[in-house]
């Protein structure tokens, strides 16, 4: 879709992303067709950008996108994990598989994976493990919110399948 055809209510948000990223990702142009959904997502993204740390957030995005089978989001999160979170390639792969070398981040990623795989039905032991790693209940709530936010874009991109505009990543089976 041509950006000139987008609803006026989406343009300020889309313009802010374009300025921040340096280009307009295809996913955002497609998502901006609904100002209600797009602006709500952008607000959630902005708020959750203050949750946890960037390496943990990007790692959660990677594992959730892997579980949800969203190839578009895997390209985006692999790119941001490398360039913004400064995660090395082996850590990006590890995050896609639901782990990290840092024990605290590993606990958050494992918990996020269990939340998405089990639709929130985690065990008491799962919850205790993330708490034992040093996360408060507020942090656990943030992990759950991140899982939900990343799932939203995963589902959107799996439905609309925008053309990929970030570097391709190998399928999980080959890593």
From TrEMBL:
| InterPro entries in the cross-refs | AhpD-like, AhpD_core, CMD-like, Uncharacterised_peroxidase-rel
Locate the transmembrane regions by residue number: none
Q: Which GO terms describe its molecular function?
A: peroxiredoxin activity
Pinpoint the Carboxymuconolactone decarboxylase-like domain residues.
38-101
Output the superkingdom of the source species.
Bacteria
Tell me which NCBIfam families the record gives: ahpD_dom, peroxid_rel
What name does the UniProt record give this protein? Peroxidase-like protein
Q: Which organism is it from?
A: Caballeronia arvi
């Amino acid at each position: 879709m041509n950006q000139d055809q987008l609803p006026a209510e989406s343009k300020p948000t889309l313009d802010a992303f374009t300025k921040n990223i340096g280009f307009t990702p295809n996913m955002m142009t497609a998502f901006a067709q609904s100002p209600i959904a797009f602006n709500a997502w952008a607000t959630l993204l902005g708020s959750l950008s203050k949750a946890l740390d960037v390496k943990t957030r990007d790692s959660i995005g990677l594992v959730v996108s892997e579980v949800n089978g969203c190839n578009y989001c895997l390209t985006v999160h692999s790119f941001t994990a490398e360039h913004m979170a400064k995660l090395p390639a082996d850590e990006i792969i590890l995050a896609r598989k639901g782990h990290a070398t840092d024990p605290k981040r590993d606990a958050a990623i494992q918990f996020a994976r269990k939340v998405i795989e089990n639709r929130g039905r985690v065990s008491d032991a799962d919850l205790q493990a993330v708490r034992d790693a040093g996360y408060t209940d507020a942090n656990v709530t943030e992990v759950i919110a991140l899982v939900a936010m990343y799932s939203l874009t995963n589902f959107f991109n799996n439905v609309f399948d925008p053309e990929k505009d970030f570097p391709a990543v190998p399928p999980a089976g080959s890593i």
